[in-house]
Design brief:
By secondary structure, the chain is an alpha/beta fold. About 30% of the residues lie in helices and about 20% in strands. It folds into two domains: about 60 residues, no CATH class; about 270 residues, Rossmann fold (3-Layer(aba) Sandwich), CATH 3.40.50. Strands 1-2-3-5-4-6-7-8-11-10-9 form an eleven-stranded mixed beta sheet, with helices on both faces. The longest helix has 28 residues.
Length: about 350
């Protein structure tokens, strides 16, 4: 067996090896099985640390100035089983990120169309969100592209924790840049929606000082309390929220639910009030009740620069993405409501 200090060196060397695109610096498998005297181990420690440092500097230089810049490098799309559906890859921050892309059959490379980014919930993935929302069918009907990115370990780092090397806000920006290179996308009509953990990411994206996204829609999510003091977008924000009063995972009244890792979250009314104040909405809400009295839509239109805030209240409903229906338990079609909201809005340019 290797000595404890050698195991430490090998562990550190293995981390550096992974960070340098998998290039093996020494035949580690052979060294692990050697019994080495302490003097040799000490020398080996110095040699490996020097090699590792040089490799790390070379890798950093390549990322910053070489052709494989992490923010722009991408691999070709792989065709999936369904026509118009593809699995894409994007190398970002030393990680291989993936996404599921649906392009409508009506797409023409010489005609730019809208893009919708749809973010899955915790423990899920993009393809599952596509099945549960019906966004692909809607994209075919209305003529827009929809992309379903996949989070690291099936989750989104809403606070963009640099300590663990995950910055999903930066990833979203890199993904948009990539998609605008390989598809004809109307850059004034890029939209973001998400459910639960993905909905919290949408709220986070709406807080960016400058954004490529024209309008936002979060489902069963609110604004993280830790984020509120740093939420200062430069332009008015067009934002739709869909929440259930019976939601136990993301309670209507906010607080610190056990499965929400953001410290504490604002209540639904406080989140809507936050965005109203940011947009300068002064007129009272326009309220619409759907048949069955389980859905109430409160619109705050004609805010600053024509911005709009909308809240869909699902009375007595829990942690779900509404898919429509009929009869006394009718719920609205959440995907259609989101698209109807999106298509009313275009990206505003920062002052």
């Amino acid at each position: 067996m290797a000595t404890p200090i050698l195991r430490l060196v090998l562990s550190r060397q293995r981390e550096q090896t992974l960070q340098s695109n998998g290039t093996a610096l020494l035949p580690l498998a052979i060294i692990v099985n050697l019994l080495l005297p302490k003097s040799t181990v000490a020398k080996l420690l110095i040699i490996l640390m020097l090699i590792g440092s040089a490799t790390a500097c070379h890798a950093k230089s390549t990322r910053e100035s070489g052709p494989l810049n992490e923010q722009t490098f991408f691999t070709p799309l792989r065709q999936s089983a369904q026509p118009g559906d593809e699995i894409g890859e994007l190398f970002h921050q030393g990680r291989q990120r993936t996404y599921y892309l649906h392009t409508p059959k009506s797409y023409q490379p010489n005609h730019s169309i809208p893009l919708v980014l749809a973010f899955h919930g915790y423990g899920s993935q993009g393809s599952s969100l596509a099945l549960s929302t019906g966004f692909n069918d809607l994209a075919e009907q209305k003529g827009f592209i929809v992309v379903y990115p996949n989070g690291i370990e099936r989750r989104w780092d809403v606070m963009s924790n640099a300590l663990i090397g995950v910055d999903d806000v930066s990833f979203v920006s890199a993904l948009i840049d990539q998609l605008t290179k390989i598809r004809a996308i109307d850059k004034r009509r890029i939209y973001a929606t998400g459910v639960s953990n993905g909905g919290f990411l949408v709220q986070r994206l709406a807080c960016e000082p400058k954004s490529q996204i024209a309008a936002f829609a979060s489902v069963v999510a609110t604004l993280p309390g830790e984020l509120q003091p740093f939420c200062h977008p430069e332009t008015p924000i067009d934002l739709l929220m869909i929440n259930g009063t019976g939601d136990r995972k993301v309670p209507w009244e906010g607080g610190s639910p056990p499965k929400v890792p953001y410290g504490w979250i604002l209540s639904v009314p406080d989140t809507i009030n936050f965005w109203q104040q940011h947009d300068g909405c002064t007129a009272p809400a326009q309220i619409k009740q759907l048949p069955g009295n389980r859905i109430e839509i409160s619109r705050y239109p004609n805010c600053r620069d024509g911005s709009e805030v909308e809240l869909v209240t699902m009375k007595g409903v829990g942690h779900v993405w509404p898919r429509g229906g009929s009869g006394p338990n009718h719920l609205l079609n959440g995907s259609k409501e989101i698209w109807d909201f999106f298509q009313r809005h275009f990206r505003r340019m920062s002052p």
